[in-house]
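4.2 Preliminary Data

To establish feasibility before requesting continued support, the project team ran the inverse folding procedure on a target of 194 residues. The structure was first converted into the token representation described in Section 3, and no sequence information of any kind was made available to the design step. The complete token record follows.
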């Protein structure tokens, strides 16, 4: 049989007909699978106070979901290995490294990013202190620094010394070395946050 006779015959109609019929339950379930054959999960969380429902690959990180699916670009992707702290966000008020946290684990929880820290146009005291003390240079690490500092003070109370601030913030790296100003900002902000 030649290709021409095959295409001209009724075999094409027979081959196409199953594609045009209504999908079965099994076909619908299969269509939910991702390209890799992994079924997405539904995540329902409160992000910066707003209810959010998103379907994600169960392997998706919270960082990638916030940035790519929810368009919250304030949380930065630094090392993507949990070593720099640029991706720090709060989950139920506790600081987490969103590059090491699966989005699925945020299901049913409150997630706060740098975009949700201020109260409208009024900056959070830690944000205000970073501005006043110029606690940044390039600004890339600043959202993670601020989120870590807020959680540090909220969780553990104010630090008793600059050395204690440095120790508690040791998981956040500033490649520009703005550390002295960061410490100054945290020292002042924690007094206001009491």
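Position-by-position output of the design step:
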């Amino acid at each position: 049989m030649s290709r021409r006779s095959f295409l001209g015959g009724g075999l094409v109609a027979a081959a196409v007909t199953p594609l045009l019929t209504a999908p079965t339950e099994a076909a619908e379930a299969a269509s939910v699978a991702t390209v890799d054959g992994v079924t997405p999960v539904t995540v329902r969380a409160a992000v910066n106070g707003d209810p959010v429902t998103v379907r994600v690959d169960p392997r998706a990180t919270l960082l990638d979901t916030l940035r790519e699916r929810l368009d919250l670009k304030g949380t930065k992707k630094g090392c993507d290995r949990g070593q720099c702290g640029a991706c720090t966000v709060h989950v139920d008020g506790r600081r987490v490294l969103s590059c090491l946290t699966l989005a699925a684990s945020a299901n049913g929880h409150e997630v706060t990013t740098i975009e949700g820290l201020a109260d409208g146009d009024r900056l959070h005291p830690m944000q205000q202190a970073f501005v006043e003390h110029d606690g940044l240079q390039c600004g890339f690490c600043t959202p993670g620094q601020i989120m870590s500092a807020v959680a540090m003070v909220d969780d553990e109370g104010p630090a008793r010394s600059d050395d204690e601030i440095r120790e508690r913030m040791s998981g956040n790296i500033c490649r520009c070395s703005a550390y002295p100003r960061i410490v100054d900002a945290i020292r002042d902000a924690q007094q206001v946050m009491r």
